[in-house]
Each structure stands twice: as structure tokens, then as C-alpha cells.
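C-alpha cells incoming
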């Protein structure tokens, strides 16, 4: 299947690049880039993490390190998308070239070598480093301090005895290599084409399955039918558009892949418990209150 080749904003002058954001859904197709990536997620329980042939449902906190060239992705699955916090750090291991073989960095070198299979860290260590990860920024005036904090985090991760490399085959979930390839192909296609009219037959033909077999496959590995998985992606896109754009509800409906406004309202309320209009109003009020409190606090 096709794998997206991501071009990161990391420049030769940067030690690392930090992206922090609040998420209301996942839309990460299978992709690859030459940089190492450390990805922290909070409040993302129920999402699926894919690293090469490893496919796992994640818990409330997740911290993963992958080496450059490692295929990885995330899928909505059962995540409810309420206030998901994400910190992504991308860096080139070459920043340590002159030091990586020195004794103080021996464990970090071993960490980087294991990252080619992907590494997931233990809950206790994630708790210990999460606050420091959230302090990292791209601000030039704090670049030295940020680098020191980042080095501290890497050192602590390298000492995590309960960290777990993600093997080529994920025996804990029962996924075979063929199953992983099929699931990746399906999810990639849905994420790339959700705005279009997609039928069960369209997707079944991609992986040489009958329509009935495809639905059984998805039900087995995601717990949802084809249309439920497709609607997950569309509702995720709709929530992002409701919060991050000034599009009308009708525009959000059609840009998210739904072709009927009443159907969109019905599906959205079933998933979120409120209508799209109510959802937007509630979150705007929450953001206003949060901003207001921060302003008062600063005064």
C-alpha cells in the first residue's frame, strides 16, 4: 500500500521541533519521515497505534519513540476524542553524533537502536516525564534550556526497564502481518477519501475480499462495521471544523463527507450526545471561560 512521506519543518539549525496541540480526533494515515519522533498522548484511551507490524489499542497515556524511516499511524477506533493532548517531538539523531559513542550517552545510543522497532514506555515513566514534555517549545530564547530538558527526558526514557519494543508481529492482539497490511490499507483509503462517496464494495475490492468478509474483518479487529469506521473519521473531521473554522454547520456537514444535513445531525448527536450547533457553543464557552480565567490570573 502507499505510505505518505512526511516533510517535517525541522531545519538544519534546529536540534528538535516540538508540536503541541489539543485534538478532538485522529486523522493520521500511515506515514514515514527520516527524523526520529517521540509522541506523547493524553486522554486518548481507545485509539489504535500502528508501528510497522504492531497494532495496539492505547490507554489514557501513551508515549512512543520511533526511529526515522519507521512506518507509523494512529486510528480513531474507540477513542471518544474529548480533550486529547498531544506533544510531538521530531529530531535527527545526528545532533548527538560527536557524543553518541561516549560513555554518558551509552544508554541513549541503545535507546535509539531499539527505536527502529518502535518503543512504548511504562506508565510510571510517562507520568514522570509528561510535565517536562509539555514545557518544551520552539522558542529561540529558550533553546538551550529546552535542549537540556530534552536530554534529561531522553536519559530517563533510556533507563526505563519496563519500556517495551514493538515486535514485528504483535502476538498480544492476534494480528498477523497480512491482517496489519489489510487494516492499514483500509484505514489509509478511508482517511484519504472520506469526503467522497465510498461504498463497501469500493474498499472490498482494494484487498480482494467480499463485502461480507470485509465487514467481518473490520468487526473483528476494530469492533465496528465499515460504515461505523467511516463515520468515525467523518465525525472527527466535523468536530475539528466546528471548533477551528467559521464554517456553517451545513458546510461542515458536506466538507466532512456527509451528503445529508439531517443525517449528519442525527449521527453527530448519537456520537457526541449533542447537536453540532450545541457542541460548537459548548466548546466556545469553555474556551472563553478558560481564556478569561487566564487573563484574570495574569493581572
Amino acid at each position: 500500500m502507499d505510505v505518505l512521506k512526511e516533510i517535517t519543518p525541522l531545519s538544519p539549525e534546529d536540534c528538535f521541533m516540538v508540536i503541541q496541540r489539543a485534538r478532538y480526533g485522529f486523522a493520521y494515515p500511515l506515514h514515514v519521515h527520516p527524523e526520529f519522533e517521540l509522541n506523547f498522548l493524553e486522554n486518548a484511551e481507545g485509539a489504535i497505534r500502528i508501528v510497522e507490524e504492531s497494532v495496539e489499542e492505547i490507554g489514557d497515556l501513551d508515549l512512543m519513540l520511533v526511529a526515522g524511516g519507521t512506518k507509523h499511524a494512529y486510528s480513531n477506533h474507540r477513542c471518544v476524542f474529548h480533550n486529547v493532548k498531544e506533544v510531538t517531538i521530531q529530531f535527527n539523531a545526528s545532533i548527538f553524533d560527536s557524543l553518541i559513542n561516549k560513555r554518558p550517552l551509552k544508554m541513549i545510543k541503545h535507546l535509539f537502536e531499539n527505536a527502529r522497532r518502535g518503543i512504548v514506555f511504562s506508565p510510571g515513566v510517562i507520568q514522570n516525564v509528561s510535565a517536562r514534555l509539555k514545557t518544551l517549545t520552539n522558542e529561540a530564547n529558550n533553546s538551550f534550556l529546552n535542549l537540556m530538558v530534552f536530554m534529561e527526558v531522553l536519559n530517563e526514557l533510556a533507563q526505563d526497564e519496563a519500556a517495551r519494543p514493538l515486535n514485528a508481529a504483535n502476538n498480544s492482539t492476534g494480528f498477523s502481518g497480512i491482517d496489519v497490511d489489510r487494516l492499514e490499507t483500509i484505514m489509509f483509503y478511508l482517511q484519504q477519501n472520506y469526503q467522497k462517496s465510498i461504498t463497501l464494495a469500493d474498499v472490498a475490492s482494494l484487498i480482494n475480499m467480499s463485502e461480507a468478509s470485509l465487514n467481518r474483518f473490520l468487526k473483528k479487529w476494530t469492533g465496528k462495521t465499515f460504515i461505523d469506521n467511516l463515520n468515525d473519521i467523518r465525525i472527527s473531521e466535523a468536530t475539528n471544523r466546528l471548533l477551528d473554522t467559521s464554517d456553517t454547520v451545513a458546510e461542515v456537514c458536506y466538507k466532512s463527507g456527509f451528503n445529508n444535513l439531517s443525517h449528519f445531525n442525527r449521527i453527530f448527536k448519537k456520537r457526541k450526545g449533542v447537536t453540532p450547533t450545541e457542541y460548537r457553543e459548548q466548546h466556545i464557552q469553555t474556551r472563553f471561560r478558560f481564556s478569561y480565567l487566564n487573563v484574570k490570573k495574569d493581572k
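note: The two ends are 54 Å apart (CA to CA).
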